[in-house]
């Protein structure tokens, strides 16, 4: 039996938008509807977006429970400004980045290295699959992908073992790939599963998650009214770094000397930016999958939205093979 989906940092997300009565919030990553239901119960109207066709029953249930206050639009959150404009004005956007426990628990979706299933990982259930990447990329490009998107330090050895294995037969299942990775780099008691970072990298590549995230952030900047709130939950350092730089692009830049002409900084599109929030011990005990989550939120100013910039946010790039 599949474990129920438990929304991460739910109370903190709802608190970030308070007060909610009469406000309209876009839930850009609807999933099983945990955030949407909590926001509706707190008094908000919700426009939900998701590209996964399997979420339809959850959306139908909320539409029945909150008639006239819940609207579902199929699509990707990278286009949330276009998809949600008919429901404007929009006072808040919430994004929960990454794979949901609902998807992890469906072995046929191929997201989990703990469950036997086809090596798929496509959230939209269309396009190039993880099996396509694993079986067709050149060894160097595969290694670069695992390093850039998964921060896998042993990516070259893993890629070498994958290429050797696929010369005998195509790699088609999740557990088959997990075993190859474990054989390549070993497993120490108490450590995370050796396939964790590689599966993350493949999932990000298959679904274009970094591009989706960047496009979604800038779409929210275009969509939100002045004073509107954007709240983003991420699950690993690469995503969190992108969100942090988006909210505060000047932070971490070179210090300015008071003895030299001052560099004119861009006017702030988000101010104030709230302090990052991580789950407490009670939530971690209840939901171990929340352990790497971080919530960042900020308030939209009246300054004109910026053009989309991937470089400015330090989005990882996979180099091609030589």
Automatic annotation (TrEMBL):
HAMAP family cross-referenced by the UniProt entry: 16SrRNA_methyltr_H (MF_01007)
GO molecular function: rRNA (cytosine-N4-)-methyltransferase activity
Gene Ontology, cellular component aspect: cytoplasm
Catalytic reaction list: cytidine(1402) in 16S rRNA + S-adenosyl-L-methionine = N(4)-methylcytidine(1402) in 16S rRNA + S-adenosyl-L-homocysteine + H(+)
Function as written in the Swiss-Prot or TrEMBL entry: Specifically methylates the N4 position of cytidine in position 1402 (C1402) of 16S rRNA.
UniProt keyword annotations, A-Z: Cytoplasm, Methyltransferase, rRNA processing, S-adenosyl-L-methionine, Transferase
Sequence positions that bind S-adenosyl-L-methionine: 33-35, 50, 77, 96, 103
Gene3D superfamilies documented for this protein: Putative methyltransferase TM0872, insert domain (1.10.150.170), Vaccinia Virus protein VP39 (3.40.50.150)
Highest taxon of source: Bacteria
EC supergroup of this enzyme: transferase
Family statement: Belongs to the methyltransferase superfamily. RsmH family.
EC number(s) given by UniProt: 2.1.1.199
Protein name from the UniProt record: Ribosomal RNA small subunit methyltransferase H
Cell compartments where the protein resides: Cytoplasm
Lineage: Bacteria, Pseudomonadati, Pseudomonadota, Alphaproteobacteria, Hyphomicrobiales
The species this protein was found in: Devosia riboflavina
């Amino acid at each position: 039996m599949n474990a129920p989906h438990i929304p991460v940092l739910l109370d903190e997300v709802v608190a970030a938008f308070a007060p909610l009565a009469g406000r309209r919030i876009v839930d850009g990553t609807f999933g099983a509807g945990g955030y949407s239901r909590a926001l509706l119960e707190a008094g908000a109207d919700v426009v939900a977006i998701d590209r996964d066709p399997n979420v339809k029953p959850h959306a139908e249930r909320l539409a029945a429970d909150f008639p006239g206050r819940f609207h579902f639009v199929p699509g990707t959150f990278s286009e949330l400004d276009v998809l949600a404009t008919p429901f404007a004005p929009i006072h808040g956007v919430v994004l929960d980045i990454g794979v949901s426990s609902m998807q992890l628990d469906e072995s046929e979706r191929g997201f989990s290295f703990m469950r036997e299933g086809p090596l798929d990982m496509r959230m939209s259930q269309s396009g190039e699959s993880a099996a396509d990447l694993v079986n067709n990329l050149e060894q160097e490009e595969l290694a670069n992908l695992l390093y850039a998107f998964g921060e896998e330090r042993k990516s070259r050895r893993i890629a070498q073992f994958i290429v050797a294995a696929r010369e005998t037969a195509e790699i088609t299942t999740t557990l088959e790939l997990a075993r190859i990775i474990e054989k390549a780099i070993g497993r120490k008691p108490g450590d995370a599963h050796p396939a964790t970072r590689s599966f993350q990298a493949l999932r990000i590549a298959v679904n274009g998650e970094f591009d989706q995230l960047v496009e979604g952030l800038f779409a929210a900047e275009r969509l939100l009214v002045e004073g509107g709130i954007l709240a983003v939950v991420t699950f690993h350092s690469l995503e969190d770094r992108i969100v942090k730089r988006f909210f505060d692009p000047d932070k971490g830049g070179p210090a300015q000397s008071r003895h030299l002409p001052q560099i004119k900084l861009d006017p702030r599109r988000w101010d104030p930016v709230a302090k990052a929030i991580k789950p407490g011990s009670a939530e971690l005990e209840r939901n171990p999958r929340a352990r790497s989550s971080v919530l960042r939120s900020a308030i939209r100013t009246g300054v004109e939205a910026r053009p989309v910039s991937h470089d400015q946010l330090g989005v990882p790039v996979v180099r091609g093979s030589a």
